[in-house]
Amino acid sequence: MLAKTHRPIYNGCMLRNLALGSLLLFTTGCWVGSLFVKNLDTLISVKVSNTFDLYYKQKQQLDEDIDNFLKRKKPLADIALKKLSEYQKLSSSAKLDQKLIKNELMFWQKFYTEIMLEIVQKHSSYLINLTEKQQKHFFKEYKERTKELKEKLEEDLLEDQIEKYERFFGELNKDMTKELASNEDFFKSRLMAYIERRKEFRIKLEELYKKKAKDKDFKSLFSKYIEDRFSKTVTIHHAKIIHNLLRKMGSDQKIALKENLTKYKTWVEVFKETDY
Q1: Predicted pLDDT at 15
Q2: Do residues 176 and 249 touch, judged by C-beta distance below 8 A?
Q3: CA–CA separation, 245 vs 166, rounded Å?
Q4: Is the pLDDT of residue 106 over 80?
């Protein structure tokens, strides 16, 4: 655990880095994905260290904290494996209705939220120790990322969605692509909402640093940011999209889905067996 004199490490950006690190695996081949899982502690460490420009001793403490965190989360692998096995059976079942998909999405949202809130409770107290130099570094990168997101509003958001779903279904057929295209306004509205959340979060965080706020204030800000991430209305819409995509799968997509679910189970097994 971090000592009080160490620089704070975890915040909303770090939490997203964990999630993004996981999503990165879904863009790789099987052996490459397994290699990433085995080195997940290093990947997270490098990303967080660069985000905060850590000093040597802080980097050492970060590595220890990440290893301990990943070790504590090993039991969750069994939950993920069970779920993936269920999905393999359901992928070819006619019983896969929209309500079931919504419930599964809500399960994973709760799963994610509980992990992130645990990180906040254990580590956010150290955020108050950021030096002014470290704050400037963090906010500079934060603003640059927000700028990149704003630029994406002018790009083809459909391509991003196609790539995301192809991680599971393989190459989408025309009907599946049309389904995503019919939801372009929805995808754009979600990105706009995310950008606005980032803006509000940054303003509030800057205010906390300026007034040298207490630990409970930082913890409250991060907890609220995490808890407000998911909306029931948005989840229902996502469930509808996934349900329609499943209904429009062809034989190629069904084969790809089963193969990818098997591949992801392999990665979870690697996580479970790796000694971080």
Answers
A1: 42
A2: yes
A3: 11
A4: yes
> Which conformational region is residue 10 in: left (phi greater than 0), alpha (psi within -120 to 50 degrees), or beta?
beta
pLDDT digits (tens, 9 = 90+) for 148-174: 999 999 998 999 999 999 999 999 999
pLDDT (average), residues 238-266: 95
**How does pLDDT run across 112-136, given as a tens digit for each residue?**
999 989 888 876 655 667 788 989 9
- Read off the pTM: 0.81
Mention every residue, 6+ apart, whose C-beta is less than 8 A from residue 166. Answer: 172
Delimit the domains of the chain by residue range: 12-273
pLDDT digits (tens, 9 = 90+) for 173-201: 999 999 999 999 999 999 999 999 999 99
Query: Given its phi and psi angles, is residue 173 left (phi above 0), alpha (psi -120 to 50 degrees) or beta?
Result: beta
The pair of three-digit structure tokens given for residue 164, joined into one six-digit string: 């995301």
Return the HEC string of the chain. CCCCCCCCCCCHHHHHHHHHHHHHHCCCCHHHHHHHHHCHHHHHHHHHHHHHCCCHHHHHHHHHHHHHHHHHCCCHHHHHHHHHHHHHHHCCCCCCCHHHHHHHHHHHHHHHHHHHHHHHHHHHHHHHHCCHHHHHHHHHHHHHHHHHHHHHCCCCHHHHHHHHHHHHHCCCCHHHHHHHHCCHHHHHHHHHHHHHHHHHHHHHHHHHHHCCCCHHHHHHHHHHHHHCCCCHHHHHHHHHHHHHHHHCCCHHHHHHHHHHHHHHHHHHHHHHHCCC
Residues ≥6 apart with Cβ < 8 Å to 236: 102
Query: How many CB atoms are closer than 10 A to CB 174?
Result: 9
